[in-house]
Amino acid sequence: MPQNRVVLVWPVVVAARSPLLAWRDAVYIAAGFAGILGLAVLLLQPLLAGGHLPGLTVRTARQVHRGLGVGLVVLVVAHVVGLWITSAPDVIDALLFQSPTSFSPWGVVAMWAVFATALLAAVRRKLRLSPAAWRIGHTGLALVIVVGTIVHALLIDGAMGTVSKAAFSLLVAAATARLVFDLAVWMQARRRRA
Hints:
Elements: H1 2-16, H2 26-49, H3 58-86, H4 88-95, H5 104-127, H6 131-155, H7 162-193
Helix pairs in contact: 1-2, 2-3, 2-7, 3-4, 3-5, 5-6, 6-7
C-alpha cells in the first residue's frame, strides 16, 4: 500500500520542487496544483470503479468513486478560476477555442466532459438509465476526460516535469484501458445471458 501513495504523491512532489514556480504568484500555483491533483484523481477513479483497489468493498469503492467525482469537479473549477484570476483573457480565449496554445482546447473539452459526467450522475435516476446505458455513457465521457486531460498535460511545459508527467499519464491511460476492457467483458456476458 505505501507504494500506491508514493505513485499518487510523486507528481505533486516533482511539481513542488520545480524551479518554474519561483516567480509565480500563489493563485497561479494553486491553480496548477489543482490540475495536478485532478490528474491524480483520474488514476484512482477507474481503479475504484473496477474494484482494483485492495481492502475496499464494492460499496465503499463506489462511495469513494462518487466522492472523488465531486472532488474532481471542485478541482477543475479551482483550476479554471485560479487561471481566470491570474489571466482572464487567456481563459476566455481557451473557452472560446481561440487560444494560440495547443494544450488549451484539450483541457476545455476535458473540463466540459467532467461537468457532463457530473450532470449525468446527478440525473441518472430521473432518466431511469439502465445499468448498460449508464456504463456506456459514463465510460464514454470518462474516456473523453482522460484523453483530453492527458494530452492537455503532456502539451504543457510546466512544473510537473516531462518524465513524471509522461509516466503518470501512462498509468492513468493503463488504468482506464483496464476499466474499458472490463466493461467490454461485462457487456458481452450480459448479451450472452439475454
